[in-house]
Amino acid sequence: MNAIPKVGFVSLGCPKASSDSERILTELRAEGYLISPNYHDADLVVVNTCGFIDAAVEESLDAIGEALAENGKVIVTGCLGAKADVVTAAHPSVLAVTGPHATEAVMAAVHAHLPKPHDPYLDLVPPQGIRLTPDHYAYLKISEGCNHRCTFCIIPSMRGDLVSRPIGDVMQEAERLAEAGVKELLVISQDTSAYGVDVKYRTGFWQGRPIRTRMTELAAALSELDVWVRLHYVYPYPHVDEIIPLMAEGKILPYLDIPFQHASPRILKAMKRPAAAENTLARIRAWREICPELVIRSTFITGFPGETEEDFQQLMNFIDEAELDRVGCFTYSAVDGATANALPDHVSDEVKEERRARLMERQADISADRLAARIGQTMTVLIDEISEEGAIGRSYADAPEIDGVVVIEDGADLAVGEFVTVEITDSGEHDLWGEVV
Ligand code: SF4
């Protein structure tokens, strides 16, 4: 009997890229390929790349180079794959290059260079597919691409316009994941609030029931699965108001990940940000009135071309008044192909960095105060790992990998994926400490 063909897999980039990787891995296993944990045993290697910023392009090209040196047979997919000429210029010997969300094209390339095993055992595939996240949480991708044209971003040129997945397919995947033991679903896309715009909010079906392809209806349907539902990449459009009551009623997590990026109307306009004209502060206040537990995470960019000290002060005032829970801040960096590169009045690296540091210093105090206010509260915590420190988990206020954690020093007996009630006893700048109640 011939040895079963083995494929090595390198997955780089954001959760959206991980979700593509999961699909390709699931397909490979469905067809009977084995996944090799190292280059040496693999018959060929698939590298799923990221091309968002120059550093990611370099990391991706290095990973391709390493796979070629160690194995020799490499198929490239993902965001950088959308720029096939960049890949082939650096590495002419790759076997094939495809863009993002191209499972079929990747499988065709794998078949061409490593024929399918003769007798696939379909039952090797667990019903929830192969996932890169731990068993207890999973990313749920609801759409691909983006209809916006933010001037600093090249995702639309790499991933194309918005294409929403049929709501029936999304719900079936979510249901399968919940049945397989997943406790938390992280809804991702480039713009979650735009879900369904491309299909005019078409009605789909789940369990024989009509449901519109729309964020509110999706959130309500997901809430029936009895798992944590966390929304990422939401823009502050008026219709986002509709999901706040679902949060207040405990149906989905009172957590919103909204990449505001700036607060100066002039800069937001130059960035061509979605919902740039909305009165965001008033909207946040109204949301908090309906749902006081609401936690908001956001990201910002300092030093966008043309940003004056006055623009930056507007951003700092917003930071003061919005009192966001979690904030990430990046300095503007010119991405090859982004239209913002052509804007006048680029800001020096020193000023960009100095503004970033000022913003993060101010935010650190705000985050620390908001966390300190949790001391004495009881919170439900989902356990992510057991370590020497005890158990480490997250409350509704923490998304995996990007937010803080809750450390439970007396939690060594807890199990990964378990929900526990914890009394918060201490807090830091990012994390909380607590005891099992
Ligand atoms: S919303 Fe803007 S930043 Fe986000 S993917 Fe679309 S164009 Fe890029």
From TrEMBL:
Binds 2 [4Fe-4S] clusters. One cluster is coordinated with 3 cysteines and an exchangeable S-adenosyl-L-methionine. It holds the Pfam family Radical_SAM. [4Fe-4S] cluster 1 binds at residues 14, 50, 79. Keywords: 4Fe-4S, Cytoplasm, Iron, Iron-sulfur, Metal-binding, Ribonucleoprotein, Ribosomal protein, S-adenosyl-L-methionine, Transferase. It catalyses: L-aspartate(89)-[ribosomal protein uS12]-hydrogen + (sulfur carrier)-SH + AH2 + 2 S-adenosyl-L-methionine = 3-methylsulfanyl-L-aspartate(89)-[ribosomal protein uS12]-hydrogen + (sulfur carrier)-H + 5'-deoxyadenosine + L-methionine + A + S-adenosyl-L-homocysteine + 2 H(+). GO terms for biological process: tRNA modification. Residues 372-437 form the TRAM domain. It is an enzyme of class 2 (transferase). Residues 5-115 form the MTTase N-terminal domain. SUPFAM superfamilies: Radical SAM enzymes. Its cofactor is [4Fe-4S] cluster. PROSITE patterns: MTTASE_N (PS51449), MTTASE_RADICAL (PS01278), RADICAL_SAM (PS51918), TRAM (PS50926). InterPro entries: Elp3/MiaA/NifB-like_rSAM, Methylthiotransferase, Methylthiotransferase_CS, Methylthiotransferase_N, Methylthiotransferase_N_sf, NA-bd_OB-fold, Ribosomal_uS12_MeSTrfase_RimO, rSAM. [4Fe-4S] cluster 2 binds at residues 146, 150, 153. Its EC number is 2.8.4.4. It is found in: Cytoplasm. One of its GO terms (cellular component) is ribosome. GO terms for molecular function: 4 iron, 4 sulfur cluster binding; aspartic acid methylthiotransferase activity; metal ion binding; protein methylthiotransferase activity. Residues 132-369 form the Radical SAM core domain. Belongs to the methylthiotransferase family. RimO subfamily. Catalyzes the methylthiolation of an aspartic acid residue of ribosomal protein uS12. This is Ribosomal protein uS12 methylthiotransferase RimO. It comes from Sulfuriferula nivalis. The gene is rimO.
